[in-house]
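User: Can you help me understand a structure? I only have the sequence.
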Amino acid sequence: MTEVHATAVVDPGAQLGKDCRIGPFCVIGGNVTIGDGVVLHSHIVVEGRTHIGDGCQVFPFASIGHRPQDLKYAGEESELKIGKGTIIREHVTINTGTKGGGMLTAVGNGCLLMVGAHVAHDCHLGDGVILANNATLAGHVTIGERAILGGLSAVQQFVRIGRNAMIGGMAGIRQDVVPFGLVSGRPGYLVGLNMVGLRRADAERGEIDGLRRLFDKAFDRKAGNLAERVKELDELAEGNALASLLLDFLKAESAHGFMQPEGRDGG
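Assistant: Let's start by predicting it. Here is the structure, written out as tokens:
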């Protein structure tokens, strides 16, 4: 049975699933939907048109689903969706979307948002994403599956971070980071491929070798600019799912260009 502490304030319009536990001094708004087995430990506020998936845990003093920190927001009924099994630690803030960004902020399944992380309006996080302590996402950021952002890192608006990328602590991210990219430094730059992440993803040796060849070719500044090099990479990606994923990412529209290895052009 769902348990609601006597000090919690739950709007009658809120929908609570089975076997939930709503701890002391939590506040839940009328447009909130909470899935089965969710635990809100204590002192948590969940507002807005927010859906929290089954099996999530939210720790004290998190603020979930409040209005975006965007002066253009005009009260539109935007949403926040959080997938199953995600863990949201203390003092995390996640805002709903805006009309200008598709009306939706989305956090995938099995994510871990550590202490003080911030997910701004219209961000989209894939499954298994980890934001370490005080990692900060500006609006409209997209993060691929199983990417990891180190503590105190900060990501600019409209930036894309690809699947299995690894962002070092305190790095500032102003351009797109390719899938499997490894970023370090302040400001951040692309160090190479995230080999640890690739091994954790059970990538085959041949796929990794092909991915490395495509990566080296794409970021070889001796062979024209990045846009020119990308046009010549189809053959290297053929038959290799990882290389194809990287190439598709490079071919997609980018608001800020792509983060490069240190000393290479920003193409």
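Now, to help you interpret it: The chain has five helices and 28 strands. The CA atoms of residues 102 and 190 lie 30 Å apart. Let me know which part you'd like to focus on.
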